[in-house]
Amino acid sequence: MDNFKLIEAAERGDRLGRGELARLLTAGEAGAREALFAAAYRVKAAEVGRKVFLRGIVEFSNLCSKDCFYCGIRRSRPGLERFRMEPGEILAAARWADENGYGSLVLQAGEVEGEEFTAFVEDLLRGIKEVSGGRLGVTLSLGEQDEETYRRWFKAGGDRYLLRIETSDPELYRRLHPSDHLFERRRACLELLRRGGWQVGTGMMIGLPGQSAESLADDVLFLRDTDVDMVGMGPYIPHRETPLGAKSGAAARAARSRRLELGLRMIALTRLTLRDVNIAAATALQALDPAGRELGLAAGANIIMPNITPTRYRDAYQLYDGKPCLDENAAACRDCLRQRVEDLGETIGFGERGDSPRFRRRRLS
Ligand code: SAH
Ligand code: SF4
User: Fold this and answer.
1) pTM, two decimal places
2) Rounded distance, CA 198 to CA 362, Å?
3) Whose CA is nearest to atom 8 of ligand 2?
4) What pLDDT score was predicted for residue 249?
5) Confidence (pLDDT) at 339
6) Alpha-carbon distance 6 to 10, whole Å?
7) Residue 248 pLDDT > 90, yes or no?
């Protein structure tokens, strides 16, 4: 079957295999990429609508006990000033999100385990429900935790949890992390979250050193088999002061357009395969191209996560080099975003939570 026929089959809902997904990731003939994005866009419009939902993200602490080789806030990064925002500042951001019609909030930070942190987040969740009159949907992105912690956070008002598997290839995972960071534990955490009633999101970094098209095809199949509600994935972007980023060298840093293209095609293939899930157009797309997030929407994404962290903390939360909007405040981001989304002919679901249709159907079944 030629690639155009393959795209048509995927749009109709046929299951593509590993080799077919890998082929569409790299297909170079004239018009193939446009056909892929157009098909994914039609599936998005039919399954989740032409409406973008916003999740204001607050990156509230860069303290992290882990040492992922690619990450700019890893534990052993020297010379980085560590911070944790005060609860009052985080609640002010939540109130701002609610008042500005952002239906949901994401709380993200480095990974910290233990009672003090668990109770800190628990109190925050209760506070957020209170300041927003229970309106804001809350996503946590706080890494691997034990079952009891996830249970407490769910009970205190957490709705969704985003935990990227980073890559579905256990061998590649091992090369990206110190030996005590376990792929199997991360996967087990996703199961705990599902059993605990969360809307579960996962995703990968795209364009990692040593990651083949077949490995990315496996990532799409992993998302399908894990039956997630939300997908948050984006290009890997080297950070110079990390082991992986330093090793990546100038050639890898220059391969930005390839990683942007792969990131967009992964969104399209994920939309064609998983259909009714929420898919985020990651900020890392915007780091590679100022219009990256809009390109993500056109390739099948339906979620944008504007950064609403107070600007003074952003410099210290650079997971990768060239993270965008370092000095743009939340209000400026909102206004330019609205314009960009309307230019695409889509609307923003202001004041709506925008739960994934997949999750709603799962609960009814
Ligand atoms: N500590 C939590 C949440 C913060 S990190 C966790 O790890 O789950 C959030 C995500 O940032 C990670 O899952 C990873 O996919 C992404 N990230 C880290 N370093 C990156 C880099 N150099 N390029 C692109 N994404 C990166
Ligand atoms: Fe910590 Fe998350 Fe960065 Fe890993 S990716 S070092 S867990 S913040």
Assistant:
1) 0.96
2) 12
3) 110
4) 65
5) 85
6) 6
7) no
* % pLDDT > 90, the chain: 87
Atom index in ligand 2 nearest the CA of residue 75 equals 6
Atom of ligand 2 nearest to the CA of 177: 4
* Residue 357 confidence class, pLDDT cut points 50, 70, 90: very high
Residue 163: nearest ligand to its CA?
1
| Å from CA of 361 to ligand 1 middle | 29
Looking at all shown ligands, the one closest to residue 67's CA atom is 2
Cβ of 237 less than 6 Å from ligand 1: yes
Compute the CA torsion angle 88, 93, 97, 103 (nearest 10 deg).
Answer: -70
Rounded Cα gap, residues 196 and 151, in angstroms: 7
Which residue has a Cα nearest atom 11 of ligand 1? 319
Which of 59, 65, 66 maximizes ligand 2 atoms within 8 Å of its Cβ, making it the mutation to test the pocket?
66
Average pLDDT over residues 92-98: 96
